[in-house]
């Protein structure tokens, strides 16, 4: 499979999710900017995937990253999506431009919603939706010392 085939539109995502569910696969959802992919990202995504059988990653568009983090992203959404899709444990990447991924979570209806342990469960967007349908909302430990901001600061000598 080509990495581009794992980058899905919102129109194509429901069919992929339905096919995974028909195969008995547990669908996991997470989201983020993933600007400069680093060990922390890889570890986090790999842990998320191990909580189920298919991992969908909601990826912030360039505009939504810029709204959250002025001066960013460093890499455009096409590059970020292709890099994420190249990871064996990522099954689908879907862009979203809204301030939160709630509409995407509603579309996916994941069995497991995952964020890093820097979030409280009740602070994770979509937690009520997932819990109300009998799913799980979990956090996974983050690798200490890794962040895109820290990498940028190091490059700039700050």
Automatic annotation (TrEMBL):
<keyword id="KW-0808">Transferase</keyword>
<feature type="domain" description="Cytidyltransferase-like">
    <location>
        <begin position="29"/>
        <end position="154"/>
    </location>
</feature>
<dbReference type="InterPro" id="IPR011914">
    <property type="entry name" value="RfaE_dom_II"/>
</dbReference>
<protein>
    <recommendedName>
        <fullName>D-glycero-beta-D-manno-heptose 1-phosphate adenylyltransferase</fullName>
        <ecNumber>2.7.7.70</ecNumber>
    </recommendedName>
</protein>
<dbReference type="InterPro" id="IPR014729">
    <property type="entry name" value="Rossmann-like_a/b/a_fold"/>
</dbReference>
<dbReference type="InterPro" id="IPR004821">
    <property type="entry name" value="Cyt_trans-like"/>
</dbReference>
<keyword id="KW-0547">Nucleotide-binding</keyword>
<keyword id="KW-0119">Carbohydrate metabolism</keyword>
<keyword id="KW-0067">ATP-binding</keyword>
<keyword id="KW-0548">Nucleotidyltransferase</keyword>
<dbReference type="GO" id="GO:0016779">
    <property type="term" value="F:nucleotidyltransferase activity"/>
</dbReference>
<dbReference type="InterPro" id="IPR050385">
    <property type="entry name" value="Archaeal_FAD_synthase"/>
</dbReference>
<dbReference type="Pfam" id="PF01467">
    <property type="entry name" value="CTP_transf_like"/>
</dbReference>
């Amino acid at each position: 499979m080509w990495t581009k085939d794992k980058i899905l539109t919102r129109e194509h995502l429901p069919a992929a999710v339905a096919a995974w569910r028909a195969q008995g696969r547990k669908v996991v959802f997470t989201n983020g900017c993933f600007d400069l992919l680093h060990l922390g990202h890889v570890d986090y995504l790999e842990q998320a995937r191990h909580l189920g059988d298919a991992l969908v990653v909601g990826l912030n568009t360039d505009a939504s990253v810029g709204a959250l983090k002025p001066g960013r992203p460093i890499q455009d959404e096409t590059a970020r999506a292709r890099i994420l899709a190249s990871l064996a444990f990522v099954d689908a990447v879907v862009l979203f431009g809204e301030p939160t991924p709630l509409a995407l979570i509603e579309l996916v209806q994941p069995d497991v919603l995952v964020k890093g342990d820097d979030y409280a469960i009740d602070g994770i967007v979509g937690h009520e939706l997932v819990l109300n349908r009998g799913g799980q909302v979990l956090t996974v430990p983050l690798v200490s010392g890794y962040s895109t901001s820290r990498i940028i600061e190091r490059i700039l000598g700050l």
